[in-house]
Specification:
It is a single chain. The protein has 190 residues and is an alpha/beta fold. The chain has helices spanning 40-49, 51-67, 82-97, 134-146, 155-164, 168-177, 180-183, and strands at 3-6, 11-15, 21-24, 30-35, 103-107, 114-117, 122-126. The protein folds into two domains: 3-67, no CATH class; 82-183, Zincin-like. 42% of the residues lie in helices and 17% in strands. The strands form two sheets. A four-stranded mixed beta sheet has the order 1-2-4-3, covered by helices on one side. It has a three-stranded mixed beta sheet with strand order 5-7-6, covered by helices on one side. A hairpin with a 5-residue loop joins strand 3 and strand 4 (30-35). Helix 3 crosses helix 4 (134-146).
Length: 190
């Protein structure tokens, strides 16, 4: 069960979670995720305590958008090699991780770099990864394939990722720097 309410400063999402968290989206909007029965006053106190951090993150996003070109940067896969690069990486990492995806698709997503439905062994990668360095694409491929071995973000999951890519945290950071790409629109207005 998830309940969403919008206030002037943020969207409040309540669910059966145990912790309180703040998520700054690629467009700079704020989502507060809270347990179902947590008092609103406690949520407001938490948000107020994090207001400087929220403002800092929003300023970073705003600065990145001002520095960003109107259209996404030219891809390192510009010759149509993005799908081939994805196929090559998926095949290589399936073998190395000892897993096999039933389906790998590429589509435009606005809030995440990839997704995995472990039950059906389906993986989807964000088409905007085409505008990110190869090492970021490789990190997302490994991350999603690792979910076929461990379908959560537990320490065991991160151990699988770390064994495959010892520098995964640096790759994560590089991908996070490109978060603005998720909200970027193509030249055709889409």
């Amino acid at each position: 069960m998830t309940i969403r309410k919008k206030s002037a400063a943020y969207v409040l999402t309540r669910s059966r979670r145990r912790t309180l968290a703040i998520h700054i989206k690629a467009d700079g909007s704020v989502e507060v995720r809270a347990p179902l029965k947590l008092a609103r006053s406690e949520i407001e106190r938490f948000v107020a305590a994090k207001s400087a951090w929220i403002a800092q993150k929003q300023a970073q996003i705003s600065a990145a958008r001002l520095d960003a070109p109107r259209n996404p940067p030219v891809s390192e896969y510009a010759s149509g090699g993005f799908c081939a690069a994805v196929r090559r990486l998926v095949t290589e990492w399936e073998r190395r991780l000892g897993v096999e995806a039933a389906f790998v698709g590429i589509r435009r997503m606005y809030s995440r770099w990839g997704s995995c439905t472990a039950g059906t062994r389906r993986i989807r990668l964000n088409a905007m990864l085409e505008y990110c360095p190869q090492e970021c694409l490789e990190y997302v491929v490994v991350h999603e394939l690792a979910h076929l071995r461990e379908n959560n973000h537990s320490p065991r999951f991160w151990a699988i990722v770390a064994e495959a890519l010892p520098d995964y945290k640096a790759r994560q950071a590089k991908l996070k720097e490109r978060q603005w790409v998720l909200g970027a629109r193509g030249g055709d207005g889409r």
